[in-house]
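User: For my dataset I need records formatted as: sequence, then structure tokens, nothing else. Please produce one.
Assistant:
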Amino acid sequence: QVQPAESGGGLVQAGDSLRLSCAASGGTFTGYGMGWFRQAPGKEREFLARISWNGAITIYAESVKGRFTISRDNAKNTVYLQMNSLKPEDTAIYYCARGRSGGTSYSNFDSWGQGTQVTVSS
């Protein structure tokens, strides 16, 4: 079973940028859609972005559209989330997951990573 491993989180100031990475361990992302979610304290896990198996199709939540960009490098078995113009409300744990069916709901994904913390100070 593939295990995603997120990295790249950290503490930044409002307006800064970060790029998160999600590497595959014990398997491959090849042929699968991939997604990014986040979860802030006391809140439900929120869908952010999804990318098709070949990178041709991307879907974004309205809350991050225009600021975040999802991409993938299938040769490296890695998915990325470029986050620009970060805001304090972007503070959360960010998760990568492999799509098991179409859609953007939590149930459409499996093989979740452990997450990486992103903290944006004002």
